[in-house]
Amino acid sequence: MKTYKIALSLLTGLIISSFAHAVDVGVSVDLGTTGAGLHVTLPLLKDLNARIGYNAMNYSYSSSTSSVNYNFDLQLKTADVLLDWHPTSAGFRLTGGLVAYNGNKINAMGEANNNGTYVLNGNTYNASAIGKVDGEITFKKVAPYLGIGFGNAIAADKGWGFTSDLGVMMQGTPKSRLSNSGCRASVVVCNQVATDVAAENVNLADELHNFKFYPVIRFGVSYKF
Fold first, then answer.
1. Using one digit for the tens of pLDDT, what is the confidence trace for 91-133?
2. H or E element in which residue 130 lies
């Protein structure tokens, strides 16, 4: 974390310095796996640009572990600070940087089976008696980013243009917190439910391990001021 903060401070300093001297500024709007976004591009050195932006969107979907069906509410919210290197004049770029704020999270809401029961850790419970099974999945707040892309929002010939990104955000192993609320069964049963929910939490974390490396695919349009 300390290394990330140092890198972010240095990059932010470069961007502030560039703002003080830059004439060309490009703005792009994009849409993709990080949601809808707005980025500002400005020059740092020859063939090297800085890009800062914000992306957000909510998305709901259904999935399941081996035992429980879930409704997942994916809440996307990231702010990135990136460096774009353009090795050629064709618009191709290599990108590296930081997702300086990773607010991505997933709300998980357990769904009872068609017969109104939950199966937790091999035990079957009546949903009306044990209440809700839900939780939250979160990620590291700072994440490195590496990728490639196309489009230079501040190229000499630019007015309007197209932009794209293909990369990966390394946001770390997800942390899941699954819990039970509203249990109206006996104390013994409710205690057993709590134990089984903890076991199901392990299953949920295993199902989400692919989110450790989050794919970033974005397409958009840019304009040079």
1. 899 999 999 899 999 998 988 888 888 888 889 999 889 989 9
2. helix 127-130
